[in-house]
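ok so i was messing around last nite and threw this chain in just to see what happens. nothing serious, just curious
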Amino acid sequence: MTVESVRAFLSAHAPDLEVVELAASTATVEMAARGHGVAPAQIAKTLSLRIKDRNLLVVTSGDARLNNRKIKDVLGGKPRMLAADEVVSLTGHPVGGVCPFGLATPLPVYCDVSLKAFDEVVPAAGSTNSAVRIAPERMASLVSAEWIDVCDRPQAP
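result:
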């Protein structure tokens, strides 16, 4: 799986998009923002969660934090982050490289409205040093994601 499954997915569904691979790791929001020359908020981080007996992905702005009350109201339960081995098994991608593209297992994908603040976001692309530049609306469309409001963003000073 990993970056090759993302390339195969993009080749089939969005051949104009290119996977960008950097020499340095982009496994954290800060590292990815620095590596791709964007604000941390523009990094589209993909969270692998379990709610009750459902596994799912939530893609959020890099500076957003899950709001447990909102997620319980919207998705019907308390979220639990999956362990690294569960993430790899379900998505085919390592922690730090998880994205909604080229998944090993079909999973429901939700995009938080925090992403709509940007014309372009940078999600990982299946490895800890790869990413894609994409409009958030297009990303959601490509993976049949549902838009939800489950995060809080920092207030501007």
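not much to say yet. The chain has a mean pLDDT of 94.
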